[in-house]
Amino acid sequence: MGFRKKSKSPPVLSHEFVIQNHADMVSCLAMIILLGLMFEVTAKFAIMFITVQYNVTQVLDEKSDPVNLYQYGPKDVATVFFYLLIAVILHALIQEYILDKMNRRLHLSKTKHSKFNESGQLAAFYLFSFIWGCSILTAEDFATNPTFLWEGYPHTHMVFQVKFFYICQIAHWLHALPELYFQKVRKEDIPRLLYYICLYVVHIAGAYVLNLHRLGLVLLVPHYLVELLFHASRLFYFSDENKQKGFTLWALLFVIARLLTLTLSVLTFGFGLPRTENQGFSLAEGNFNVLTIRMSCLAAICLTQAWMMWKFINFQLKKWREHSQNQASKKKAVSPKSKPHKKEPTRGGAANGVVKSEDKTSPRARKAKAS
């Protein structure tokens, strides 16, 4: 009698072991950093990872209380690294306790399974970021004063919410790079994911370093709303393929968001910043208001919007072709393949070897006539 083979656990530090236990390993690393706060020797280094650095206290008026503002610096790299670890942990929690349970109920294919997980993770992030960004913009009163995008540039000082928002944004998009390995993303999907991850990192980090965080925040909020609608519509589509109305609204808002982004960018780099008092380039003062940098930023935004519109048009054309092909196949299935023909009478009134008599009288009457 043979023994049953037990499923062996993967070898320690092998690829499969790291993939299965990456959330636990990252949690241990984050706990080590948090434990550093308990000891005086390591507390100074642990605080650099956990709390927001470069605090500056300003007194606006003699009667008002001092205001705590923040700048950016090289120590922000440590803070971004710590919240990158937090993002990996949150990613694993959403995957295990929400998305995996939904996948078991829906019974999706492998391709739809990976897209469902991608949309689920991004929808949660976009929803959180959109609400957070709207709360910051509400406090800034951007709707009543759009000139705050360039007035007083360089904007070297930020409130806590703005700086922490940017650190979390950069940390999230950087954590998406190792997630390509942890989630076993297919090779054909890696270039597409790398494109938009790198675009997010470059644009958000560029706005943060060039002291354009006001413009960056205003452009991110409507963009995140459009992306949230797209991924939420895709989640509903995977649950029920008849639910496709969300994609129509997404297509409309997508075009509006691209026009809004171009309008605000041209208004800021073409008209607002050239007319401010502080012109010139100074790393010490954080001033990057020169023609070369302004045109480079505007060109980068315009090229990105053009690339997104190109991808959007190709996506819509592909969907339109699929829809037309489905309609054509349905029409072929409904229409008969050949027209029905009238049955020709057989010779002698026989059908299938049986002779049919046209006399409708009963057999007894026929015998009486015969006699």
Automatic annotation (TrEMBL):
<feature type="domain" description="TLC">
    <location>
        <begin position="114"/>
        <end position="323"/>
    </location>
</feature>
<feature type="region of interest" description="Disordered">
    <location>
        <begin position="324"/>
        <end position="371"/>
    </location>
</feature>
<dbReference type="GO" id="GO:0006616">
    <property type="term" value="P:SRP-dependent cotranslational protein targeting to membrane, translocation"/>
</dbReference>
<protein>
    <recommendedName>
        <fullName>Translocating chain-associated membrane protein</fullName>
    </recommendedName>
</protein>
<keyword id="KW-0812">Transmembrane</keyword>
<dbReference type="GO" id="GO:0045048">
    <property type="term" value="P:protein insertion into ER membrane"/>
</dbReference>
<dbReference type="Pfam" id="PF03798">
    <property type="entry name" value="TRAM_LAG1_CLN8"/>
</dbReference>
<keyword id="KW-0811">Translocation</keyword>
<dbReference type="InterPro" id="IPR016447">
    <property type="entry name" value="Translocation_assoc_membrane"/>
</dbReference>
<feature type="transmembrane region" description="Helical">
    <location>
        <begin position="29"/>
        <end position="52"/>
    </location>
</feature>
<feature type="transmembrane region" description="Helical">
    <location>
        <begin position="159"/>
        <end position="181"/>
    </location>
</feature>
<comment type="similarity">
    <text>Belongs to the TRAM family.</text>
</comment>
<feature type="transmembrane region" description="Helical">
    <location>
        <begin position="216"/>
        <end position="237"/>
    </location>
</feature>
<feature type="transmembrane region" description="Helical">
    <location>
        <begin position="80"/>
        <end position="99"/>
    </location>
</feature>
<keyword id="KW-0472">Membrane</keyword>
<dbReference type="GO" id="GO:0005789">
    <property type="term" value="C:endoplasmic reticulum membrane"/>
</dbReference>
<feature type="transmembrane region" description="Helical">
    <location>
        <begin position="291"/>
        <end position="310"/>
    </location>
</feature>
<feature type="transmembrane region" description="Helical">
    <location>
        <begin position="193"/>
        <end position="210"/>
    </location>
</feature>
<keyword id="KW-0813">Transport</keyword>
<keyword id="KW-0653">Protein transport</keyword>
<dbReference type="InterPro" id="IPR006634">
    <property type="entry name" value="TLC-dom"/>
</dbReference>
<feature type="transmembrane region" description="Helical">
    <location>
        <begin position="249"/>
        <end position="271"/>
    </location>
</feature>
<feature type="compositionally biased region" description="Basic residues">
    <location>
        <begin position="329"/>
        <end position="344"/>
    </location>
</feature>
<feature type="transmembrane region" description="Helical">
    <location>
        <begin position="120"/>
        <end position="139"/>
    </location>
</feature>
<keyword id="KW-1133">Transmembrane helix</keyword>
